[in-house]
Design a protein that fits this description.
The chain is mainly β. The protein starts with a strand and ends with a strand.
Length: 123
């Protein structure tokens, strides 16, 4: 069983930065494409970005493009979400997810999920 554990969520002022981490258990991390999603209060969970197994390609939602960066360290079984120039509308619970399938923006394409970490951006 694969387990994902997010960390790094916090309360931050608008314009600030945070780096979220997602640690993945098991020895097969490098075989998973990884995604980040978020869910704001009263809203549906939405795609934030994704990264291929090798880390060679990344994909982002338009709302975060140019501000957020996804990276991964396969030696540490960890994927990161660097968030800069944060806005109040970035406030949400952030989730990482893993898939052995193709990279996708769709939640159903992911097999494993973390429990989420809260990010709150104050104005």
């Amino acid at each position: 069983q694969v387990q994902l554990v997010e960390s790094g969520g916090a309360l931050v002022q608008a314009g600030g930065s945070l780096r979220l981490s997602c640690a993945v258990s098991g020895r097969t991390f490098s075989t998973y494409n990884m995604g980040w999603f978020r869910q704001a209060p009263g809203k549906e969970r939405e795609f934030v970005g994704a990264i291929r197994r090798s880390g060679g390609s990344t994909y982002y939602a338009d709302s975060v493009k140019g501000r957020f960066t996804i990276s991964r360290d396969n030696a540490k079984n960890t994927v990161y979400l660097q968030m800069n120039s944060l806005k109040p509308e970035d406030t949400a619970v952030y989730y990482c997810a893993a898939t052995r399938g193709v990279v996708t923006q769709g939640q159903r394409g992911y097999d494993y999920w973390g429990q989420g970490t809260q990010v709150t951006v104050s104005s």
